[in-house]
Write a structure and sequence with these properties.
With about 260 residues, the protein is of the alpha/beta class. It is built from 10 helices and 10 strands. The longest helix is centred in the last third of the chain and has 18 residues. It binds adenosine-5'-triphosphate.
Length: about 260
Amino acid sequence: MSGDLLMVEGLSKRFAGRGRSVRALDDVSFSIRKGETLGIVGPSGSGKSTLARVLLRLIEPDAGRILIDGEDWRSLSPKALRHRRGDIQMVFQDPLSAFNPRTTIGKAIMDPLRIHAVGKRHSRMAALAELLQRVGLSADMASRRIHEVSGGQRQRVALARALASRPRLVVLDEALSALDVSLRGQMLELLVRLQRDEGISFLFIGHDPAVVRMISHRVAVMDQGRIVETGDADAVFSDPRSDTGKALIAAIPTWR
Ligand SMILES: Nc1ncnc2c1ncn2[C@@H]1O[C@H](COP(=O)(O)OP(=O)(O)OP(=O)(O)O)[C@@H](O)[C@H]1O
């Protein structure tokens, strides 16, 4: 057993546009081990979010295989997918877009537990308290409404909701990008701790190479739908080989 949680082979996705089509993913292959974080960096439009959405099965690729623990993710029946959807969860940049802002925090976190029918009501209440605690929120936050709390707290709620179904992989798509520096640091610490304690794997998409380097074991650089470079995070960031990698690092003067 290789220890790979996720294996992606030859993923391709083309979007038809007006008069021309865009190759958003072009023969993308990579793997993520259990308990590992793979960072994805690349210029705007390079296909990062499309990759995330294909992994979540929010959109179908034209070609390619996705294996979770050796199991073919794309061939799961709708019923099997409903049972397994919790395995891969996603946290977006703007949690407001993912929530009904008038929902209470408790309900926002509990809904997936209810949908996945995890435990009885009283054990779900205990799970809610534990989830809030795991993401550093107090239990009395459960009755507050999403629109009443700060952006940093909202992002913790989004993470708690993602964790509710006990995922094996969490895809973080620019999940920390809207946070200020100190909140971002706290969230990074939280993610690292969760990974250490629970062995969750992360796919971390970010536009700030400094943040991606901090959390990632390995990094893949994307450009025009392709992975143009991949390697250990420190190696890629200290000595990028691809033109895209070089340009991304050069754009941050403090790296030099
Ligand atoms: N639903 C869609 N219909 C048509 N084209 C799309 C669609 N979604 C994405 N694209 C195109 O696919 C390409 C990849 O987009 P994607 O959003 O995956 O890039 P990205 O790397 O996440 O960009 P950003 O960093 O700006 O979020 C872009 O050219 C984009 O315009």
